[in-house]
């Protein structure tokens, strides 16, 4: 994802025949979040199989994300073309939102991986 404006609506034209920006935006958001949610669920499953504490790995992911955000913060430009300025700000905003979304997806993955569908009686 290069910037916040990089969502191309041509990918959802096969699902929506009439121009509906909110439906198209929801489909694009679904397209972006599905792979990330699958990866987070797999991450959560690996953690539960290896019995690794979640807190330690979350702190490592948070540290790497903060370092990436700090890097993009120093790369924010306030001179040049409007496109360069917008792209640099978009990169920083995407990384900062990624940290929040990651924690929300980890909580959602906890609900998806720890919920039991049916229980069997134990004698």
DSSP summary, beta strand count: 0
Radius of gyration: 19 Å
Largest sheet: none
Shape: flat
Percent in helix:
55-70%
Distance between the ends = 53 Å
Report the oligomer.
single chain
Classification by helices and strands: mainly alpha
Task: List unreliable stretches of 5+ residues.
Answer: none
Which range does the strand content fall in? under 5%
Question: How many helix segments?
Answer: 3
- Give the SSE order as H and E letters: HHH
Task: Provide mean pLDDT, rounded.
Answer: 80
Summarize the SSE layout with pairings.
Blueprint: H1 21-50, H2 54-74, H3 82-114
Helix pairs in contact: 1-3, 2-3
How would you sum up this structure in a few lines?
This protein is mainly α and 123 residues long. The protein has helices at 21-50, 54-74, 82-114.
Describe the overall structure:
The chain is mainly alpha-helical. It is built from three helices and no strands. The protein has helices spanning about 20-50, 55-75, 80-115.
Give descriptors for this structure.
single chain, 123 residues, mainly alpha, 3 helices, 68% helix, flat
């Amino acid at each position: 994802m290069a910037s916040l404006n990089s969502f191309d609506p041509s990918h959802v034209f096969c699902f929506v025949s009439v121009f509906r920006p909110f439906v198209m935006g929801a489909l694009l958001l679904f397209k972006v979040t599905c792979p990330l949610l699958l990866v987070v669920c797999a991450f959560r499953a690996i953690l539960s199989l290896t019995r690794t504490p979640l807190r330690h790995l979350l702190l490592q992911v948070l540290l790497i994300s903060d370092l990436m955000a700090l890097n993009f913060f120093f790369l924010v430009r306030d001179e040049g073309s409007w496109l360069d300025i917008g792209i640099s700000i978009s990169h920083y905003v995407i990384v900062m939102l990624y940290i929040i979304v990651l924690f929300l997806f980890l909580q959602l993955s906890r609900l998806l991986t720890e919920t039991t569908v049916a229980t069997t009686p134990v004698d």
